[in-house]
Design a protein that fits this description.
single chain; 6-stranded antiparallel barrel; 9 helices
């Protein structure tokens, strides 16, 4: 059981070189289990930190307490950490800096704002002016120290003719115009500044109607996937052997084998994998050779390199002592079941909020079937009934641990969509995405048939020739040879086909979670 501390007193001491980072002294009572002085401590909503020292506060009921090694810790004793036994944070800092470098936006390369001057009728708003086409409108990118008045003060060239003559029917022979008409135009028109700001357009849109249309489209896609599971149309403008190059065929999904260590993504170089999770968990819980403080002892722990923003919370801080390896990343597999009150559509790789044990974070979920086999089929949508598996990159947390899954319906508003538990910490769990190509019988002759519309050229037929075919009525077949140049193919089946039957070719490709782990602070309330 993990130890935890509910703070009764918090003191922050800034560092000499940086005032926003320093040492945080938290006083409270150790509960739940034995606190490892040399391990990581997780502050809920603020992240993982290492201890620099620990002090046992004197109590009237006890004079001493025993550490796990058998030695007594006198009340008031200050326990220093052993740097040689503390886990290294270099890998975590490298991964964090890499994530920041790919996600942060360079503020120096932000686009310069544009200002557009237009002559429009009086009373026209900026949004209405944005839709008026004005050939005489001039625009200029504003940089630092520049102003639009330079253009009006004659900063540009005065040569407006450019060697061209303009025939104006309202002008006199000597080039003079009617003064009254100019004064009338001046009264009806004005020049306004139209800022090139996307928010002006967004504010004029009906977001509720757009969200309803998007939700309706997702429901239609879910219905189509339920009626025609995993079926896709073969592209006409692209060869199927190029479009489905990473896919392969299998005779039997449940009895087939797949090499779990081939063609792994680069993100797998950043994670930790256990050869035996049960033995690793048992070794993590064995703290006999470590300097620890048993539960129900009042202590003051000092955390190092803690941001000052942690002390801004008005609520008491809750500290959890992490077991060994629980600060490292891995592929966490969760067993989830949808709550009955939630009926909306949740699509594959949709960003959700997870509460896994004491950790709260945001990530994109990879949905798959929860089966006992070695291979697990990827789900395009969250099932309405039964348990399913969710795979994602997250810090290690040994099971059992409860899981709550939320969806953000609007900024600051969350709804519970699923509950479950941690299933395993196994990056080698194979999740396969299935794609089904369909064709239709063109000519039927007993057990032979000519199939069309599955491919559209001879090269594709020869490329997928070795893959087994099946039909919706249960027939099994194979491709014998291509016919013509338009993708027709002669196939042979184990029985006579019906004209209403559909021929299917099932292709599989392994898919992996996306590295979208984002820890959430206490600013996000659930």
């Amino acid at each position: 059981m993990r130890p935890y501390i509910v703070s009764s007193d918090v003191t922050f001491t800034p560092n000499a070189d940086r005032g926003d980072v320093g040492s945080l002294k938290v006083t409270g009572i150790v509960k739940g289990g034995m606190l490892d002085v040399n391990g990581f401590v997780h502050i809920i909503g603020h992240g993982d930190y290492l201890l620099s020292e620990l002090q046992v506060i004197p109590r009237k009921t006890k004079k001493s307490t025993k550490a796990a090694g058998g030695s007594d810790l006198e009340m008031g004793t200050v326990v220093k950490v052993d740097p040689s036994k503390q886990p290294s944070t270099e890998e975590d800092e490298d991964m964090e800096s890499e994530a920041m470098s790919t996600s942060e936006v360079d503020t120096s390369s932000v686009f310069h704002k544009k200002k557009i001057m237009k002559s429009v009728p009086k009373g026209t708003s900026k949004y209405q002016a944005a839709w008026i086409v004005d050939e005489d409108a001039h625009e200029k990118e504003l940089g630092e120290g520049e102003d639009l008045e330079e253009d009006a003060d004659g900063g540009g060239d005065d040569d407006d003719d450019d060697g061209m003559e303009v025939d104006d029917g309202n002008a006199d022979v000597d080039g003079s115009q009617d003064v009254g008409s100019l004064e009338k135009d001046a009264e009806e028109y004005e020049t306004i500044d139209v800022a090139d700001n996307p928010s002006v357009y967004d504010n004029a849109q009906n977001t509720e109607e757009e969200e309803a249309a998007f939700a309706k489209r997702k429901e239609k896609e879910e219905t189509d996937d339920r009626l025609f599971p995993d079926e896709v149309d073969t592209p006409v403008d692209q060869p199927a052997r190029v479009r489905f190059f990473k896919y392969r065929g299998m005779d039997d999904f449940r009895s087939a084998s797949w090499e779990a260590d081939e063609n792994l993504p680069k993100d797998y170089s950043k994670i930790c994998q256990f050869s035996n999770m049960k033995l690793s968990k048992k070794a993590a819980l064995d703290v006999a050779d470590k300097t620890v403080v048993p539960s129900f002892n009042a202590v003051s722990v000092v955390l190092r390199n803690v941001p000052k923003a942690v002390t801004a919370s008005k609520m008491p801080l809750i500290l959890y002592g992490l077991l060994p390896h629980e600060h490292q990343m891995t592929v966490v597999n969760l067993a989830i079941k949808r709550v009955t009150s939630f009926t909306e559509t949740v699509r594959q790789n949709e960003e959700l909020i997870f509460q896994v044990g004491f950790r709260r974070f945001k990530a994109k979920a990879l949905l798959s079937e929860l089966s006992a086999g070695k291979l697990h089929k990827c789900l395009r949508f969250m099932p309405a009934e039964g348990h399913f598996a969710v795979s994602l990159y997250a810090p290690i947390i040994f099971p059992p641990a409860p899981v709550l899954m939320y969806k953000e319906t609007s900024p600051g508003s969350l709804v519970l969509i699923g509950t479950g538990t941690v299933l395993s910490l196994d990056p080698s769990r194979v999740v396969l995405k299935r794609t089904v190509l369909s064709g239709h019988p063109y000519k039927i002759n007993v057990r032979s048939a000519v199939i069309r519309f599955m491919f559209f050229n001879t090269e594709d037929v020869n490329w997928f020739r070795k893959i087994r075919l099946s039909t919706k009525h249960g027939r099994i077949g194979e491709i014998k040879e291509p016919l013509g140049t338009h993708g027709h193919m002669k196939c042979r089946f184990d029985g006579q086909l019906q004209s209403s039957d559909t021929v299917l070719m099932k292709l599989y490709k392994r898919v992996y979670p996306k590295w979208t782990y984002t820890p959430l602070s206490n600013a996000v309330e659930i």
